[in-house]
Structure formats: C-alpha cells, structure tokens
Write a structure and sequence with these properties.
Layout lengths: L14 H10 L12 H4 L4 H16 L4 H8 L6 H16 L10
Helix pairs in contact: 3-5
Length: 104
C-alpha cells in the first residue's frame, strides 16, 4: 500500500491540520493560500504542527500526485511540480518569499 496523509506528522492529533490540507490546496482555494498565512505563523501548537508537516513533506517527498489529488482534489502534473509548489508555500509562510505562490 502507498503513502497516505495519516503519515503526516500531527495528522492524527489536529483536525485543523487536516482541514488545512483539504481546504488550502483545494482547486477552488489553492490560489488564495495567503488567507491561511496568519494562522500558519501564529505561536500555536497548530502552527507548529503545520510547519513540521510541510517540512516532512518537503524532506521526504512521500506523496505521489495521485495520493495528493485524492487528498486535496488538486491535479499536479508531476511530483516535481507538486513539491516545487509546496516549497513555495513554505517559503511564503516561513521564509523570505513576499509574493503569494500561484499554483500551476
């Protein structure tokens, strides 16, 4: 069996984390990722879990585009495209990127 979102750190413990992934990357909301930045950068347990989950995804690259689409309904063309976008989101939330990333 392949990867599932249940392997994301914090997934079991944080309904808000599960909601983030299902909503923030949904095709109708993905280009409004900036509306999630404030909650992603607060000094809360949820924000720390969100950051750790993005770091896990970027370091491990566990999700295929099929698994990601099953989770979020957003159809990335390739895993490189998926992880490039997640990297841009990470840099927008936690790094030096000032402009909001636009999904391919």
């Amino acid at each position: 069996m392949g990867w599932t979102a249940w392997e994301i750190p914090g997934w079991h413990d944080d309904q808000k984390l599960r909601d983030f992934y299902k909503n923030a990357f949904h095709p109708e909301l993905i280009n409004d990722i900036d509306m999630f930045k404030a909650s992603a950068t607060r000094d809360t347990d949820h924000a720390r879990r969100l950051r750790a989950s993005l770091e896990y995804l970027l370091e491990q690259r566990p999700a295929s585009v099929k698994a990601w689409s099953s989770l979020t309904r957003y159809p990335f063309e390739s895993e490189d495209e998926l992880y490039r976008y997640l990297g841009e989101v990470y840099e927008f939330f936690y790094g030096d990127r000032s402009d909001m990333p636009i999904a391919p």
